[in-house]
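Here we describe the complex-level prediction in full. Unlike the single-chain runs in Section 2.1, the two entities below were treated as one system.
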Amino acid sequence: MLYETFEKIYSLEAAGKKITKLNVGEPDWRPPIAAIKAAQNALSKGKDKYGSSYGELTLREKLAQLHGCSAKNIVITPGSKWGVYSLLRLHLSAGDNAVVFSPHWSAYSLMCQSFGTEARLVNLKMENGWKPDLCALASAIDSKTKMLVLNSPCNPTSAAFSEGDERKIIEIVRDRGVTVLSDDAYRGLLFEKRKDRLLEENLLIANTFSKTFGMTGWRIGYAVVPEEIAKKMVSLNQITFTNVPLFIQAGAEKALEDKEKFAAKVRKLCVQRAGIATKKLRGHFEFSKPEAGFYLFPKLPDEIDTMKFLDRMLDSGFAMVPGGAFGDFGQHFRVSLCREKETISIACDTMVETLEGFC
Amino acid sequence: MLYETFEKIYSLEAAGKKITKLNVGEPDWRPPIAAIKAAQNALSKGKDKYGSSYGELTLREKLAQLHGCSAKNIVITPGSKWGVYSLLRLHLSAGDNAVVFSPHWSAYSLMCQSFGTEARLVNLKMENGWKPDLCALASAIDSKTKMLVLNSPCNPTSAAFSEGDERKIIEIVRDRGVTVLSDDAYRGLLFEKRKDRLLEENLLIANTFSKTFGMTGWRIGYAVVPEEIAKKMVSLNQITFTNVPLFIQAGAEKALEDKEKFAAKVRKLCVQRAGIATKKLRGHFEFSKPEAGFYLFPKLPDEIDTMKFLDRMLDSGFAMVPGGAFGDFGQHFRVSLCREKETISIACDTMVETLEGFC
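The structure predicted for the assembly as a whole is:
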């Protein structure tokens, strides 16, 4: 449903309709200028031939430092999406399941489905601030559970589990012999900064340059995994995409140099935007206080049809995603606040007016 | 074995050893300068956000013209490798098989293996100029055969089936209800030029910008397939790599503008290089006359151990790939002639000297 929405909007745009895409989880900020220049220079210098399916050693060494491990534990991937996909694929066989907290990024379910496996959803509650339900987690795990996807901060809710809760989850799951796959795409955009996650036993990490650095379309991320799993990922990389282009890796390596400063700047921007939307929408829609990134996941009153609401919003030129794309949350919708403050303000006003139009 | 060789050499290089990599199927020519500039400009202009998982419409329209079809039949992929991988994956279920003429690019076998399927090899003979064995093909097909991989021109032999033979193959296979997947990576480098393959019933095409345009590390190719299959490919793209970066697509689109002239130039270069190597090696090694691209696949005398021969060549600074990486052809080795004429000349002299050193 998520991707169908995207393709529908690409078609509308190709037909000339002007749409403000609050549906896409895509920063509107540019990547660091130095990263763009580094990629351009690398292209000029002919760094555009085949490379190792592990990724470039210099880049992997820098990433290893952040995650308290060796370069042998780092594999460069086309986005964290490929990290998640390949790690699920390497751990799940037909009939197995992966436990996933929901609301959740629909790609997890689609990936599991594509392997003949189950994404076993543990539904969380907005009333509890989307905090993890540890009892439900423990009950969901069975002998066929091979993986738990830790999606904190969460797309679409922008809720983050506390470090204490994350620790409890990792331990519950480890005791049951299940591997944790932490999708850290939004970790760099936590409103209260945390350090990069360290590699530890039974924990795999997928991360990306997309969100923090605004490098979505560069398609570069990385996995932090034990050496043996890195080798398996590389074998899969070799028969699929080969390697992330070297000039893209050169840009990413440059971006890392300025990581702290750049991240602080965009984090501040995210906080401001979330503040504006929260103020405008509060009292009209129910939603939890965002703790990271750029999504809100508001709930519509029960009597309102979500698809009709979103269609009216699309008529007004704003695209958003129905909550059904993120699990059993059909009464919600996801709005991405990756626009200028004025646009966010107008979009929120339009949401409120559209809502009132139903009454 | 192919990819192990590559990673081993990347390590040796990282340790400072100077190696002439005649192992990699990688043109030494630069992409069209206009393509590099187009990619750099696109980066400057912020064409670095998410795009359609089909690929950019303008690029797909240009490719559709070449292949006698609609843009709806074109899907942009990270290399032809992803085209081959995803099309095999979409057509084969566990227990199925794909028939492949061998010697063959080892990725086909590794891909099939990764799905729990079989790459059923039809071994061809150097004495017959690696021409297709149609009887063996017919016998290889059974009720579990879902696909035939048409690898002409062939990596590693650089032999090409005649257009008449290709037609016969397509018809034999179609009558048996099997889909042909044509890997056209080297078609643009046929010494006797043929037009791009047209889309037709029961035929799928994977192609790439890598070889003709020297854009290996850009990771961009495309598939030419019926609309329904394009949709399925897009669904897989959406949950794996999302899209080939838009700035890379912009470069590829620019490269196409000068395709005929550029291809003619590099084709001429390939013919010259093949001529030099053929002249130097003839009488010392057995091999078939190359008809495309930049490989030779010479056979060593029976009494010589291929791995020892290749190790001695590596000691002399030349990396090549053992024939065992391409099927049941352990007495052969693959040499890639993607170097200056002088280097090819020295490499061939070294091969002859190394061979004589065994006697």
